[in-house]
Specification:
mainly alpha, 7% strand, 85 residues
């Protein structure tokens, strides 16, 4: 099955993303001349694992550590009775 046929089966408008996946060996395919060929099993695997997920994968949440921050201003002198007047 060609990438064009695969795109039609999956309801995709373009084969560009599929071609890039083939070039990066993320989608098992064989290049014959200028045409990429995929197996029906590869199409089904793609449908199960990737179809419907758009954009970048969700970022993993980083472990948060609690840190205390200190003031960066110069310390103030204690107030005296003379300063309050």
């Amino acid at each position: 099955m060609t990438l064009t046929e695969m795109a039609k089966v999956l309801g995709l408008k373009s084969t560009t993303a599929l071609r890039i996946l083939c070039e990066n060996k993320a989608l098992p395919a064989e290049l014959k001349g200028k045409t990429w060929f995929v197996t029906p099993q590869a199409v089904e695997d793609y449908r199960r694992t990737r179809l419907g997920r758009r954009g970048r994968p969700a970022a993993r949440k980083a472990k948060t550590t609690t840190t205390t921050t200190t003031a960066t201003t110069a310390p103030r002198a204690p107030e005296t009775a003379d300063d309050v007047a």
